[in-house]
Amino acid sequence: MALTGAMGAGISGLKAHMDALTVVGNNVANVNTWGYKPGRVTFKESIYSTQAAGSDGTDIVGGTNPRQTGYGCSIGTIDLDMSSMNVESTGYGADVAIEGDGFFLVGDKTGVALDNLNSLLLTRVGQFRIDNNGYLTDNYGNIVYGFVTCNVGDDGNPAGNSGLKGDAISTQLVPIRLPLAAKGTETGTGMDGVKAGDAIYPGLTEDATTTENDKVNTYEDTYAGYECITYNSLSIGADGKVVCVNDKTGDPVTIGYIAMATVPNPAGLTHTEGPYYKAMEGAGKMSINTAGGALSGQYLNNIPAGDQTASLDYMLGKGADLLSGFLEQSGTDLATEFANMIVYQRGYQANTRIVTVTDTMLEELVNMKR
């Protein structure tokens, strides 16, 4: 049993070090991937068998220690190094890097149940653009979420009652969308809790009907003044303000503010495909704000009663800033990875010796009958 146990321990070491080398390989492969967070491997001991328990001493003899045999090791954790990394200038105003803690929120255009923000994805890669429907998206086509502007025009207050307080940004977490590029009327569906109102964007009038507790509202939007918005003039400020330019008048137009999310334990996020994470068990409850912290300062205490966003957790304080025209570089440190590769290679090599030596001993045992 002891010989086969030694071989089993060696095999477990081979598997663990192979998995560790896989993590190193993934880190090195993503050395030039924007926003990549490298994995960090820890090992843990495997099970133990006890041949003899420990004993206390007596007046005559001393105590004894327990006699136990271990059976190898396994991967304990593969943690994500979520510390802020270096940034690189791109010169493009719609590229933004997060200076400090926090994540962008992205998802599909259908909206999100505000009591289940885990349906949204978190990312550190702020490589944004405008798609052909006017949505602010990332390079993978996911829609960026934020807080649209309630009062961005030159006319003062919104023309109607949207049920949202404050004169700058709403408290509705929604997909960020620019005004359409041409005059016209658009009919669609909206999220429950958005009341009938006017002038979400300057020059935008909205005729809406809602039924209490309905989950789907119908609306008809007429974009009366923004037929000349140019999307190639998109820029994002340090506070997450999304701005474009009216090509006809040359005036800047504030569309909204990008939402920022934080979790108590960023290393506990679950990595999904690409640069995305989900706040599953282990990460803690997600909290929301803007880069400049406007929600916690001016609007946190003014959320309308019964508003769906009243159930959201908001970050307090200023929060992280955004660096416009920059992207976060990969967190892979090649010197560290190559050093780890050597250590894991030697560990793998040593465990192969355990297997081969045990095999030789088993062969000698079998040959004893000759």
What are the defining features of this structure?
alpha+beta, 23 strands, single chain, LlgE_F_G-like_D1, 3 helices, 370 residues, 2 domains, flagellum, FlgE/F/G-like, elongated
Radius of gyration: 29 Å
Order of helices and strands: HEEEEEEEEEEEEEEEEEEEEEHEEH
What's the number of domains?
2
Q: Largest sheet at a glance?
A: 10 strands, antiparallel
Low-confidence stretches: 151-168, 181-226, 297-308
Shape: elongated
Q: pLDDT average, as an integer?
A: 75
Word description of this protein:
- α1 runs antiparallel to α3 (334-366).
- The protein has 2 domains: 2-51 and 67-82 and 332-369, no CATH class; 87-328, no CATH class.
- The protein is elongated and about 100 Å long.
- By secondary structure, it is α+β, with helices and mostly antiparallel strands.
- A hairpin with a 4-residue loop joins β16 (229-236) and β17 (241-246).
- The protein is built from 3 helices and 23 strands.
- It is found in: Bacterial flagellum basal body.
- Residues 324-368 form the Flagellar basal-body/hook protein C-terminal domain.
- One of its GO terms (cellular component) is bacterial-type flagellum basal body.
- Keywords: Bacterial flagellum, Cell projection, Cilium, Flagellum.
